[in-house]
């Protein structure tokens, strides 16, 4: 059986991202979302999740961008400027690899992020991380420990199989970033046999990060194999904060439209893919609000 999780990253980033994720779940093929617990929109995001019964919500562990959940004085190696995390994964790794970041601070901050969501009523379905930093070897061990501590059943391993077929649009992710992510993924072990923590059999979406428009989405769906697969997405609606503070070049609205398209639902049915969600894509609700 082809079983598919369609996961939106960055839930809580901005109101526009939240609106795109909500629409992609209500009207489209989205099954899950990964929550940033360290944004200014946390309270509104929790209220939104309560309006989306059936949406699986995991924790998007963060060490870059934004502020820590803990007071910055408690995690000084994570917030060297005294207020905020480092702004990019490159800067984080440049400090992490030579040992300038303390592992105990990472563990404490990530525990606080999970606890904040749990105390707000979220029962996390999975753990992953902003910029996939959790797959660095020592961070991977911390992630598994926290998954066991909080009874979280799944962690993401972003190990995408092979290269896209020639017929697929060129990957949008820069080559250097693909190489870094591939290297880190290969260093990440699977959970040990008999572990209560699981991961999907297959993973898709890194090569299309931020640019999963309809042609790219349909191409990925045609690559879904037998087994349990995860596809990461980034739907959203442009809002002033998103445009001002996150100039990542992502095609947020194009991804949202792709996820609610009739073509995507029909392709899932044609390919015999089962979505991990409570309704069939063949009878999806209508009225996408963008």
Q: What would you say this structure looks like, in words?
A:
There is one protein chain. 43% of the residues are buried. Strand 5, helix 7 and strand 6 form a beta-alpha-beta unit. Helix content is 37%, strand content 12%. Helix 1 runs parallel beside helix 9 (252-259). It is an alpha/beta fold and 290 residues long. Strands 1, 2, 3, 4, 5, 6 and 7 form a 7-stranded parallel sheet that branches. It is built from 10 helices and 7 strands. The chain has a single domain (2-283), classed as TIM Barrel (Alpha-Beta Barrel).
Report Rg: 18 Å
Enumerate the spans where pLDDT stays under 50 for 5 or more consecutive residues.
Answer: 164-170, 280-290
Kindly name the structural category: alpha/beta
Strand content: 5-15%
Number of strands: 7
Shape: globular
In CATH, the homologous superfamily goes by the name: Glycoside hydrolase/deacetylase
How far from one another are the termini? 33 Å
Biggest beta sheet attributes? 7 strands, parallel
The proportion of residues forming helix, as a percent range, comes to 25-40%
Secondary-structure element series: EHEHEHHEHHEHEHHHE
- CATH-defined fold name: TIM Barrel
In the CATH hierarchy, the architecture is Alpha-Beta Barrel
Q: Can you give the mean pLDDT?
A: 87
Top-tier CATH class: Alpha Beta
Number of helices: 10
The tally of domains stands at: 1
